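ok trying this again, last paste got cut off
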Amino acid sequence: MRIVSLLPSATEILFDLGLGDDVVGVTFECNWPPAARSKRIVSTSALPEGLSPGEIDAVVKERMAAGEDLYRLDRGALAEIDPELIVTQDLCAVCAIDVSEVDDAIAYLGCAATVVTLDPMTLDEVIDSVATVGAATGTAERGAEIVASLRARVAALGERIAGAARPTVLVLEWTDPAFTAGHWVPDLVDVAGGESVLSFAGGKSHGVEWSAIREADADVVIVAPCGFGLDGAAELAAGVIARDLLPPAAAVWAIDADAVIVRPGPRVVEGAEAIAAILHPDRCGDPDPALARRVR
């Protein structure tokens, strides 16, 4: 089967299902597993490189207001690949190619590919998306095994933190302007033994004033900016601390958002485990230093 993945999370799922050899096209952001980097890139960003978070926000707003695309789909590459299956999303126009653009390209090229659209909003739906891709690719049995393993890890995490005090936690998905993380991220906080502040499971990420963030007075602030790894997150966290924008008594952590938080694939369970280690090191051990770093 010739498969094109237009989502980093879908690429991870496909490789976990044992379909790495069938994946023939990916996005410029698909970097896990490392073998994904060897695949043909069919989707690139329309944004200039080297922008600050504030500049990215301004360009995104400008392009969206003008009806311009944030991503470019290489229709020539798509025609050459002639995929049988395309996995895409209809969740966030800022995060990846929108399904409507994919449908337009398929119609234009006369491609007969089946399109699978993933739109998880909660942790349960993220885990279930593995089964969805498994059903679409003839790997339902392997998908069920992965789903069962992920749910077992979530249950084991719950047992480790049972009865522990639950600190309040604010997760920042963007820092200029401030956005709190929605969708499945509050679920990650919940299963990690925390109480999510200024966001709720299944709701969209949304902008919030820094004054409201300070007034929320969360015990822990986790900076997990979409599109950033650990070093970038730590740098942004240090920046908001320097500007005195966070609750003064809060512990501040940076986390590798792209690896384990913002991409709705199997590794978000690892994200929940990392958050649990931040909140409850006495029960879960210290977080993996490759994934999380205390900034204050």
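PB: full thing came through this time. The mean pLDDT is 89.
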